[in-house]
Amino acid sequence: MIPVDSAQIAAVCAGLHADPFSFLGMHLCDGALQVRAWLPNASECSLIESKTGKKLAQLERIDDRGFFSVVVPRRKNHFAYRLQVTWRGETVDIEDPYRFPPVLGDMDLWLLGEGNQLRPYERLGTHFRTMDGVDGVAFAVWAPNARRVSVVGDFNYWDGRRHVMRLRRECGVWEIFLPNVQEGQGYKYEIIDQHGALQIKADPYGFSAEMRPATASRVARLPAWVEGTQTRKAANALNAPVSIYEVHLASWRRRPEEGNRWLSYRELAVELIDYVKYMGFTHIELLPVNEHPFDGSWGYQPLGLYAPTSRFGTPDDFRHLVLTAHENGIGVILDWVPGHFPTDSHGLAQFDGSHLYEHSDPREGFHQDWNTLIYNFGRNEVRNYLIGNALYWIERYGIDGLRVDAVASMLYRDYSRKDGEWIPNQFGGRENLEAIDFMRRMNEVVGVERPEAITLAEESTAFPSVSRPPAMGGLGFHYKWNMGWMNDTLRYMQQDPVHRKYHHHLLTFGLVYAFSENFVLPISHDEVVHGKGSMLAKMPGDCWQQFANLRAYYAYMWAHPGKKLLFMGCEFAQGREWNHDTSLDWHLVDDPDNGWHRGVQHLVRDLNQVYRDSPALYQIDFDHRGFEWISHDDADNSIFSFIRKGEDENEFIVVVSNFTPVPRHGYRLGVPRAGVYREILNTDSEYYGGSNTGNLKLPTECIAAHARPESVCMTIPPLATVYLRWSKD
User: Record's Pfam families (predicted)?
Assistant: First the structure.
């Protein structure tokens, strides 16, 4: 009998050994090489030299639970070996995971420990490697307070005793290299946590995941690097036309004839991209595609931050969707949720028995509005996890930008909390200083590492300098959603036209602060859910007036300073509120008895075309030079008129909106210079479903109006917006 520590054998067989690499595998003991292996249910085991294929020794089964050991004759130096194992009468050669060296290097440990590994996804999670001439997969997971961590999966009968990992104490990461693991196999981490409880967790860095309700991660290769390009950088720039189509992939379009199923990523790469290109949008923005357990969260409660949801296909399929968009000149923005995560047991909550990713105090770590947990932004490894994830989507999928959800909830410790339900910061204030530092750092890293990409903040408060560089005291986002503009203008549009003159300021107030940030004007999914009704339903009046109001509003929005965002379905005036469980009502566009929906769709397409063809409408979005009022005080007529300007002094567009159902004949409008003004867009065109009131050609007259020496006498259609372009004659 080979003398072996019985207590250690018992710990190995029970799956409780905290450091199996110190005991299993090949070790020099008292001047001799000893090989130890735990092979449950095996009857025999032999030692094979890898180099020669020669059988060197038969291992002795010294414990009926499957523990084997042998002293290698005439050998004192370590060498590569295999095990020839007999299970239930079948003999196979296997590689011993406990003979391989550590996976992570010293520099990896250093950077992971201090939180400065910009790409932790290149080290943690699963990675196909060749070690000592053997192909396999390296697994690594951060769980510093765990007593034991094992990989369990399709490759080891989901038995946590078989592949207990090595703890790298310098940074709290557990690791192991497993030969012969195949791509696509499911796996999780079985953790004995700091309290001795057994937990089974999905991989926080898993690159692929099972379809819900299953919750395992899937072994996947790290997606290949995607280079940034000057083309994408120019398309995302502050002086570029940016018109965003916001999409929820599960409900954009479905196959009712096939059980109401979703479209796959590859089907969307054809149908969605063709449609977006036809409509003239420059970008699509996808509601979160990170893996998430609950359909009804629309992706805003993600658990697999590194995995594109398996609902629509594989990670390669999603990558194909993004690259197809780029091939068609369309940028892709992802909604990204670093503000909170759900409490599902297979996720990040109390990952190793401690509050590892989240705060321990619910006054800091629990969102009462969403029943979710809040990341501990003050922890190096958590910041590393999130910032690395931001880079991952940009670098490995070619994503153009990240729209960061619920920024206000991160900025303030008292967000949606009553007195006594929150903890002040170190200075006694309400600002979440750690979250602010995290956002600045994230934006700095993205800006330096991938300067072609952009970040956008959904921020609903008056927090200053959201879209200003950190060096100037800002948060560093490229763009900020203008929630104030959205709320004010929708309140105005919901008024009966007869009352709008009393609310005139709601459409002008946005220009008071329009240039304080780099704004996106958002008509997002949030405006057409939870009883708010559709955009069409918000409009007052009879059916004709509702459509006319919506058309006038969209054209006003496209002319207003700021980039544009419109949620799917709004572009053809869907009548009902958005339902994430069903397809959009595409039949409305093809209804031969009601051309108004198709008319709105045609208008949005033309708005995008005029917008992209007119530098005056986008080139100077964030500076006073790009905008000038003609008249902002004609409240009695509910008329607004202004000029949008480009860098070229001859590049300008005159915009006139009439938000009453009364046509204004003989309206004298002061204009910037003498010449001829022609309509390039009129939302009252019969092509869009309007009354076809308008103006073909408006020569100027030397008659002063609106404090200008030149003017035109025009007809302003009812409930309409008109764009006029100047020429010399």
Answer: Alpha-amylase, Alpha-amylase_C, CBM_48, GlgB_N
Question: Under CATH, what is the fold of the domain 616-727?
Answer: Immunoglobulin-like (2.60.40)
Q: Percent of the chain having pLDDT more than 90?
A: 87
The arithmetic mean of pLDDT across residues 599-627, rounded, is 97
Instruction: For residue 336, give every residue at least 6 positions away whose Cβ sits within 8 Å of its Cβ, in sequence order, or none.
Output: 288, 290, 389, 390, 393, 402, 403, 404, 405
Average pLDDT for residues 230-255, to the nearest whole number?
97
Domain boundaries, the chain: 6-95, 106-219, 244-337+378-405+449-613, 616-727
3-state secondary structure of 450: coil
pLDDT in tens, 96-151: 999 999 999 989 988 988 888 899 999 999 999 999 999 999 999 999 999 999 99
- The CA distances from residue 311 to 94, 206, 319, 342, 608, in Å, are 35, 16, 14, 19, 31
Report the pLDDT value the prediction gives residue 223, as an integer from 0 to 100: 96
90 a catalytic residue: no
Q: Do domains 6-95 and 106-219 have the same CATH topology?
A: yes
Q: What is the model's pTM?
A: 0.94
Give the separation between CA 473 and CA 533, rounded to whole angstroms.
39
Look at the domain 6-95 and name its fold: Immunoglobulin-like (2.60.40)
β pairing state of 290-291 and 304-308 = antiparallel
Percent of the chain's residues with pLDDT above 70: 100
pLDDT given for residue 1 in this prediction: 47
Query: Cβ neighbours of residue 481 under 8 Å, at least 6 residues apart?
Result: 403, 456, 457, 458, 459, 460, 519, 520, 522, 524, 565
Active site residue 458: yes
Contact 66, 44 (CB under 8 A): no
- Choosing from 210, 291, 400, 405, which is the catalytic residue? 405
